[in-house]
Amino acid sequence: MAERPILLAAGMAALAIAAFAGATQILDTYSMNVLVRSLLYAMVALTVDILWGYLGILTFGQSTFFGIGAYAAGLVFMHVGFSPGTAVLALAAGIAIAVLVAAVVAWLAFWHGASELYASVITLVLPIVATQVIFSGGTWTGSSSGLSGFETFDLSIEAWFVLAGSLLAVATAAAWVVMASDAGRLIVAIRENEQRCKYLGIGTARLKSIAFLVSAALAAVAGYVFAGYAAVVAPELVGFVFGTELVIWVALGGRGTLLGPVIGTVLVDYESAQLSGDYPFVWKLIIGLVFVAVIVALPRGFLPILGDGLKRLGRWVGLGGKTTARTATLVTAARRTVATASDGPAIRIRGVAKHFGSLPVLRGIDFEARAGELVSLVGPNGAGKTTLMRCIADGSERSGGTIEIGGVSIGRLPPERCVALGIGRKFQMANVFDSLTVAECLQIARTRIDRPSLVRRSTELALPGPAARVVATTGLDQRLATPARLLSHGQKQALELAMVLALEPKVLLLDEPTAGLSKAERMLIGGILTDLATQERLCILLVEHDLDFVREISSRVVVLHQGRLVLDGTVEEVVGSETVKQIYAGAGHHGAPAEAAR
Amino acid sequence: MTALLLDVVTTAAILFAVASGLLLVFGVMKIINFAHGGLITLGGYAALITTQLGLNPWFGIPMAALFGAVAGTLIERVVVRPLYARPLDAILATWGLGIIIGQTIVLVFGREVQFAAAPLGGTIDLLGESYSLYRIVMVPIAILLGLGIALLLNGTRLGLATRAVIMNEDLARGLGIDSTWVRFVTFALGSALAAVAGALITPLSSVDPNMGVPWLVNAFMLVLVSGTSLASLAAACLVLGGAQVIVSSLYSPVLGGITIALLAAIILRTRPQGFARG
Amino acid sequence: MTHPHPRTIGGLVLAACLLASPALAADTITIGIPVGLSGANSVVAPSVVQSAELAVEEINAKGGILGKKVKLEVADDGSGAAGAQKAFDSLIFQKKVDVLISMETSAARNAGLPIVARGKTPYIYTSFYEGRSCSPYLFVNAWVPDQQVAPIIDYFMKEKSAKTFFLVGSDYAFGRGMLAFTKSYIEKKGGKVIGDEYAPMDATDWTAIISKIKASNPDALVTSTAGGAPNVTLTKQLRAAGIKAPYGNLAVDEGTAKAMGPDAEGIYISGSYLTNIDSAANKTFLASMDKKFGSNLKTPNDLSVPQYEAVYAYKAAVEKAGSTDAAAVLKALAEVSVDGPRGKITMSKQRHAPLTMYLGQVQADGGIKLLSTFKDVDPGEQCPNLK
């Protein structure tokens, strides 16, 4: 069962195209001239909105991809000539070069560990470099003067207007379909909490790169049409100023909405054609002031404000239909036949070390754990427990040693690839997607297994047995439509556990899953964990301070102290160990009794 | 060869002066202040006003510091403070402020290129090369600026609080440090430094509403590769500024113009900590 | 103001169009001036608008053109392509002007040409530029490299016995075009170009280039940078570096030279107009400008004076053609002459005009000393495919 918004979108796009065709009857030549450009700019603004408003990548470089499409047309038509063949060639070349450049930028900007700020600055460097390249092109690129006077498509202004309007309508409708689909939900999740996405096995850098490449291609198409229409290309189409103007239009219209940026672009660009002639500097000053005010006070832009107002008006008049929050229904996922692992250990850790600069945090850690074991990692604060968890879940973390999952080394793999090997990590602080509902959070967690559709929003939430059990026993099944931020602390912890279990991991890493929970909640979680180990044959590594809890559920205990493994044995061996007593006594007030007393 | 060496050292000094204010703001607030270019321009106009008032050109530097500090104070209170939790929005808002500063200057002073009197002119014979005196003087000035900031950070209570906020803001707040105040003072100081840089480059440059813009991207990139340390900024200015001079001299000034940005992007990709930590 | 539906935009647009009623009356002739009120040209644009206003006032005071009043429509082209498209669209299709007369950047002109062709409107371009822009609708009454370069190079070779030249430019069409011509001209005359260097168009740091100039120690230096900041910074930094070779600046105008103060002293400049041209027409023109604009007067220059003359050229062409019909006017424009501040000018050479060029040197007080005059310098082969 799935919803198909695609038909609705196609209908809306057809309606919009009909409206554009109708408008040619009322509009004069001048207005259509101005609007053709505005509509094409709006198409680029739409790509800025997808990247920034939906995905969280603030980009100043979309102008460059627009310019690449435009210059592909300009250069081919100027130097090769215009024919149907060269027209196709130019379009293909424009898209190909835009995608290629976007791939280089994506390689520079999106990688595990790159900050948002850094990615943004890279997109700022792009138009600056691109402008320099065009300036240096001499008569071939027309340098600062651009290229003009090449032959191009012989279309009437009405045809251009309908063409630009149709492109924009189709692009907007397509974007709407994607944003309403499973993939759209994923995009929001990446913006909201990229780290959690990575540890859910989602290659966020790759997805961001794909979105960036698609946006570049779309912008190039708009640029190509622009050059065909205007019969001129100039360096400013590629440049930084245009790139930032696009961001302004999107911000004013409403980032994270699709119509907002489109309307914002068309209105601001059209009005500036009217007003800037008389007061060019005052006009820019006003745009600057409004822009800053919107960013500070109305970060969502104008359209959502208007939308809220309309909704309120509708409710006041009594027209507003009840918005029924539809949510996915829970089903049990088909059990995947996992190739039965060899009877080797589920996880094997050999000589793992980690140091920050010259400060060692972990030294020579060696141990193994098998499927069905529940191994607790204990030790005073600063012993390196959480650091060890991090080293297991992210191949780039450790400074030395090897870690194997089911016999496969994790090498230097990023977290999302470690997940693919069978690792599931739950963080110390409940780490969920605050703005998504419980059902959506769980659907995101299934992304690695149930490929999200680009055009449909799935109405089923298929969870594997263990995850479904956590959801059912903690009462989350009654709250599937509740936004995660409204859950209690305990429910958030349970939700995150269910999300990690939805990954169907072989090795489960849990960092203090019961911290801050009530006694009853702790009991519940403890029961679930032992079941997971004994019945589902999961290998569980647990960092825990509460030694009573550890004693109740663990099959084995590993003691860390000052970055070294000091003991690896059964619960009884550890409890009876003199070494352990000394460690905890020596650690003073950080000791176990204090922790256990919480 | 001597000329090349002097070019490298003086270019690095100018870049250091231009980027130091940005570094301070980035260190404490973790935002890139896009209004930096506007503030540099403001400093240039402070120098212009000094000239128009018939004052000694050196007086332009404290004048610029005052202009920058006042503007920084206003910007921090009205625009940056509400955006602490939204760093990307802070970038955008400060960029909008850059537009506002630029257009206001256009409305007040006009678009045209203007001229501030230079405090020093002429050439000096150094290592057998006659070289622009003012460029040479920029080197001790940049060193003084660097030492001054270092002294402020390491020798005062405010400096201690600032360093604490740079390292770990939550912890610093927990220890009773008023991080809002630290941010406020830092932003004002960073803005004053930007304006001082603007006044300092006027003898080499012109005074016009866009004079700060060409410096902006290079300053960003230098700060990004330097992290939060003045020493690594100095190193970055020498290495990347040097690369710019060498590429401009040996290959082409056009390529030289984008050398800093390109090299910095590649450095950050392959060595995310940049020049920080050795 | 916004409503999330495309059709509403159509409505708004329609309303906006109705409000902006095109000034179209049979008894007026409308001249469109797309010009860079903002952007790179915004410093010089006001002087261009002023001289056009004076020309229109004078013409109207004497009964207009063919008895019709003349009216100006000014639009900002933002000194670039995108702004120019809006400006040209607005002037041609909304204001329905009879002719376009303007000083613009090359990017703006190029962006405007396809629109001019679509609207079939005559267009007189009044800015010096890198040359070879050709369109059946375009006439140019300002200089191209072929006309400007010779006076300076000839003077340096003859009077300063310069053999070796160093060329510096901004990396843009005008800078490259000027210096490419300069280089070939120097080589043709037996001189040697020992260096030609370009910096990015917005560059204000010339360190590396200056070090190269010092190292190669040329007999003379010729620069062609973007106007404004790049030009000023290059001059200042050259002076600060103590470079003493004769220095011809192809991009500086009188006003900037004056504002630059002592740094500008000794610079050689070449152009088709200097304020101290000793002719009755120029003196009358300056007096009228002074009278009309008083303290608001922007100093007339080599960009604003061609604008003034172009309005008269259009008047002459309409009167010769007997109507404002585009084809007839375009035919007449190549034939009529204007006797203005720059002397007698006819756009008879492949849509370009032979011009009298002046070589001057900036003095300590900022004034320009006229060194020599070159009569009717030919623009060379600009548009061999147009007559």
TrEMBL record, chain B:
Primary site of residence: membrane
**This protein's name:** Amino acid ABC transporter
Q: Which family does it belong to?
A: Belongs to the binding-protein-dependent transport system permease family. LivHM subfamily.
Claim: Transmembrane helix is one of the keywords in the record: yes
Q: Which PANTHER family match?
A: ABC TRANSPORTER PERMEASE PROTEIN, BRANCHED-CHAIN AMINO ACID TRANSPORT SYSTEM PERMEASE PROTEIN LIVH
Domain of life assignment: Bacteria
What terms describe the molecular function in GO for this protein? transmembrane transporter activity
Its BP terms in the Gene Ontology are: amino acid transport
- Alphabetized InterPro entries for the sequence: ABC_transp_permease (IPR001851), BCAA_transport_permease (IPR052157)
Any one cellular-component term (Gene Ontology) = plasma membrane
Annotated TM spans: 6-27, 34-53, 59-80, 92-111, 131-153, 181-201, 221-243, 250-268
Q: Where in the cell is it found?
A: Cell membrane
Sorted keywords for this record are: Amino-acid transport, Cell membrane, Membrane, Transmembrane, Transmembrane helix, Transport
Species: Prosthecodimorpha hirschii
The way this protein sits in the membrane is described as: Multi-pass membrane protein
* Short name of one Pfam family: BPD_transp_2
UniProtKB/TrEMBL annotation, chain C:
Q: Name one Pfam family in it.
A: Peripla_BP_6
Q: Keywords assigned by UniProt?
A: Signal
The record's section on InterPro entries has:
Leu-bd, Peripla_BP_I
Signal peptide segment: 1-25
Record bears the keyword Transport: no
| Domain of life of the organism encoding this protein | Bacteria
Where would I find the Leucine-binding protein domain in this sequence? 28-366
| Record's keyword annotation contains Transcription | no
Please give the family membership noted in the entry: Belongs to the leucine-binding protein family.
The molecule here is called Amino acid ABC transporter
Species of origin reads Prosthecodimorpha hirschii
Phylogenetic classification of the source organism: Bacteria, Pseudomonadati, Pseudomonadota, Alphaproteobacteria, Hyphomicrobiales
